[in-house]
Amino acid sequence: MASASGVSMSLSSITCSFKKNQQVPISSLKSVSMPIKGKSFQSLRLRTGPSRLRVSCAAKPETVNKVCDIVRKQLALPADSEVTGESKFATLGADSLDTVEIVMGLEEEFGISVEEESAQGIATVQDAADLIEQLISNK
């Protein structure tokens, strides 16, 4: 059970409003949108792990699309190849050198610097887009 306090959650075509201290099961949710402490987050992604639930801020669709384009270009994929936020670099055929080149392309495109530790945690297009948004907001 999750506790929501005065929060409004939107799921595609479903909108739920929660009253103060109302408990809501979130096991079937995939993403939600809500303002937190005056900041509006486009969406929050809920990720289930082996024994825990992790909530992370998802990047804007424009950022994800830009990352998809950069990945396509770096891996010399056809323009019509399907690359989405959930696409894993390894599944797209990227080896470790390709992944380093992708990160370098992202740094150049977005004017950011990705530390090695952070770069090692990037496995999907969405991971990269989320990190970019985080680094941009920290500037």
From TrEMBL:
One Pfam family of this chain: PP-binding
Ranges of residues in domain Carrier: 61-136
Function (record text): Carrier of the growing fatty acid chain in fatty acid biosynthesis.
Residues in the signal sequence: none
Name recorded for this polypeptide: Acyl carrier protein
Statement: the UniProt record of this protein carries the keyword Ribonucleoprotein: no
Any one GO MF annotation of this record: phosphopantetheine binding
Sorted UniProt keywords: Chloroplast, Fatty acid biosynthesis, Fatty acid metabolism, Lipid biosynthesis, Lipid metabolism, Phosphopantetheine, Phosphoprotein, Plastid, Transit peptide
Gene Ontology annotations for the cellular component aspect, listed alphabetically: chloroplast
Subcellular location: Plastid, Chloroplast
Family: Belongs to the acyl carrier protein (ACP) family.
